Every structure is written in structure tokens, then in C-alpha cells.
From TrEMBL:
Lineage summary: Eukaryota, Viridiplantae, Streptophyta, Embryophyta, Tracheophyta
InterPro entries (UniProt xref): Cupredoxin (IPR008972), Phytocyanin-like (IPR039391), Phytocyanin_dom (IPR003245), Plantacyanin (IPR041844)
Residue ranges of domain Phytocyanin in the record: 28-123
Gene: LOC125506224
Membrane-crossing residue ranges in chain numbering: none
GO cellular component: plasma membrane
UniProt organism field: Triticum urartu (Red wild einkorn)
Protein name: Plantacyanin
Superkingdom of origin: Eukaryota
Length: 123
């Protein structure tokens, strides 16, 4: 039988080893528009994809020509920004979906949403 003085340090070492080998699981990354990126005609890209909350949408685009605006359903349908929104402008935006349900994104540059730069992602 092992003495208590050797059992406790042994258990601590084993616990530390388990903690060090455990990895944190992150959501899957999805590049919006695949190789084409965030561009005209991307509407519908999300169809048939099994996107979940905690997944990350990656929007790649030329920031001097486009942006990404997270909007409500009404603004998505009307292709305008009138309510609360969040605008991204880096050209390489990583947006984690924090909740289940639909999340809406458009490009707010004049005419771009109407030309298909919008997606409605269901997680």
C-alpha cells in the first residue's frame, strides 16, 4: 500500500497530464462563398450546410469595395440598414455564431445586397 505522501503527488501529476492533453473544441470555420469569397451572387451559399452555433463564418473580400453588416430579418429582406446592426470592414472577418436560429448578413454598399451579397444562416 502506498503512503498518502506519494498518492497525492502522483494524482496531481496524473491530473496535470490529463489537463495538458485535453484540447478545447471550437466550432467549424466556414469560408462564406467558398473560393469565391464574399461577393455578388453569394446568396444561397449557406443552403444545405450544417452550420451550428459556435461555428465561425469567415468573410473574405476587398474592404475598399465591400463590407459585412449583421442585421435583423427586416433589414435583410429590404436590403437596407435601418435597425440595430454591426458592421465589419477588415476584409477577413471571423464571426462566431453565438446562438441558434437565423443570423442575417448583407453588404451595405449601394446595390450590393440587391445583387446577391446577403446570406441568412441558420444554426
Amino acid at each position: 500500500m502506498m503512503a498518502r505522501e506519494t498518492i497525492v503527488p502522483t494524482l496531481l501529476v496524473l491530473l496535470l497530464a490529463v489537463c495538458c492533453t485535453t484540447t478545447v473544441v471550437h466550432g467549424k470555420e466556414w469560408t462564406v462563398g467558398d473560393n469565391k469569397g464574399w461577393s455578388f451572387g453569394v446568396s444561397g451559399w449557406e443552403s444545405g450546410k450544417h452550420i451550428q452555433s459556435d461555428d465561425v463564418l469567415v468573410f473574405k473580400y476587398n474592404p475598399s469595395m465591400h463590407n459585412v453588416v449583421q442585421v435583423g430579418e427586416g433589414d435583410y429582406n429590404s436590403c437596407r440598414v435601418s435597425g440595430p446592426s454591426r458592421t465589419y470592414t477588415s476584409g477577413n472577418d471571423h464571426i462566431q455564431l453565438a446562438r441558434e436560429g437565423k443570423t442575417f448578413f448583407i453588404c451595405s454598399h449601394p446595390g450590393h445586397c440587391q445583387q446577391g451579397m446577403k446570406i441568412a444562416v441558420t444554426a
